[in-house]
Specification:
Number of strands: 0
Radius of gyration: 21 Å
Strand content: under 5%
Length: about 90
């Protein structure tokens, strides 16, 4: 395997990206559901019910990667911890 170097800054940046993606996906799903409910205040018929099924599918699809992103975030935190431990090791 080729020499690989992982910088603390890169790991922390990846954590920020993962956290942002989690927030964006959850927020988008929530906004979609809110807009659907708002539409229901003035639009209640068969088409509204059909739209509800589509909105639910979209919301599930938006939230599907969140668990994987949390897992990735946990692994990145572990890598960060190990890098900090390594940086703190004094080899003489």
């Amino acid at each position: 395997m080729a020499d690989v170097s992982v910088g603390l800054g890169a790991v922390q940046n990846a954590q920020t990206v993962c956290s942002g993606a989690i927030q964006d996906l959850n927020s988008s799903a929530q906004k979609l559901n809110n807009r659907y409910r708002e539409a229901g205040q003035r639009w209640r018929d068969k088409k509204y019910t059909q739209l509800g099924g589509i909105v639910n599918e979209c919301s599930r699809a938006l939230k599907a990667p969140v668990d994987e992103l949390f897992e990735c975030l946990n692994k990145l935190k572990e890598i960060e911890k190990r890098l900090l431990e390594y940086d703190g090791t004094n080899i003489s």
